[in-house]
Please model this.
Amino acid sequence: MTVLKVAIVGCGNISRRHAESYAAAPTELVGVADIVPDKAVELADKYGSTPYNSATELLAATSPDLVSVTTPPGSHAALAIEILAAGKSVLLEKPPVLSLAEMDAVAEAERASAGSVYVVFQHRHGSGGLRAASLLADGALGKPQVAVCETLWFRPVSYFDPEWRGTWVGEGGGPTLGHGIHQIDLLLHLLGPWRTLQATAVRLDRPVEFEDVSMASVIFESGAVATVINSLLSPRELSRIRIDTTGGSLEVNHLYGYSDSDWTFTPAPDAARAAANGLDPGVRRTGSEVVAEGTDPWAGSAGDDVPSNHEAQLGRLVDDLLAGRSHDTTLASTRPTMEFVTALYASALTGTAVDRAALTPGHPFYRALHGDVPQAVIDQTFTL
Model:
């Protein structure tokens, strides 16, 4: 194939990111669908495609190679299973599903299908994130010890006006699932498997069934420790990950997407320790700087600056599929992220630490992030 046939189900705001990214890649947008016909018509007219009133109608009339699902999260699993049953591949917007049970149901449908499932976690695909993952995996930046992961965003009360927002059924969860999941996924992508976490979640202001702020302390299999905070109440918005290693401090500060200049690496001031990791002690480098090869692995590895946006991941996905290569942001690769989110809610609602290994089909929170805890109890637990 030289052109990938793509389609989009769900024509709300995020669908435009998919349409724009596909337009910049070697694709043909064969159809778009929405249960609100006017939305489908508007998106189809703008990008030269054909509107449909449902995924079922679209699949009956077209034969896409890949279908983006950009509907509200509560519908993701059912749509993914329907698309897979038609033998087509699926790209799920985040969050991919609302529970581990839904994730496993989609995975079962994937095993029976000719299609595959991918998930939008674009922060894995910016050049800064790719470099950080590679250098950390190689040990070039030292051994990770301490990390901080912050998603400090602001959503006004009016954000929750759509009837599906603010509810367990429609959104599935608060900033932990719908917003902080981006940074959580990147943190896990950089640090590897997590082992256990202890969490707190509170509802301070917004009219929602779940939390508007959550916090967790995490222990990784490597022995590294981290704190994670997610908020929808922070007027000066920030997305931040900092990882302190034996070789220095790696940090990215951005909002909804980073470029190389948003990353910094500060080598450890201890000259002997820094030298053991091949670093210049005490010299601050930004992701866009290049120094003499062999002196600073972070700065010396800089290449083309690719921002961590939808175009980066969708463009790479299209190229991978056209070339017959595997694409690494699969449904299976994102299960640790959904396990982390599940554990955070479970810990916050039970007041106990949660081990990743315990998140099996028999776990009380496997089928729903609220663990079937009565809403009155959730309200009492999350209200200070």
Notes: Residues 277 and 358 are 36 Å apart (CA to CA).
